[in-house]
Amino acid sequence: MLDLDLALAILHHFFVFALFGVLFAEFVVVRRGMDAAAVARLVPIDAWYGVLAGLILIVGFSRAIFAAKGWAYYAHNAFFWAKIGTFVVIGLLSIPPTLAYLRWRRESTSPADAAVAKVRPYLWIQVALFPLLPAFAAAMARGYGEF
Length: 147
Fold this sequence. Notes:
single chain
């Protein structure tokens, strides 16, 4: 039988990998020369980005509170808070692209290359920050960052 700690860990890791897959899909789709059909495909992909981010928060905090190590372990760990902070920054960086995608879909036209160029840096930064999440998690799991 699967215990709660293992089940939450598996779900958490699955959702994080899925989120990176969705982010990478956006990174690939959002490019100069996009047409309205690409935008139509992009909006549901981005919706999954939000759903997965929410699931990561729910499962992650459930794991921190109810699983083996408990909240006291995580609450006093700098790498835990660095991971949360990085996740929040990535989430905030996802807002401008989401608003652009929704605007592009509402306009039902191909986005101008200049509009795409404004969105790409947000995606680049998110992709660049993402590897910090498992790095902070690995350090935290090994007891580094305790205060």
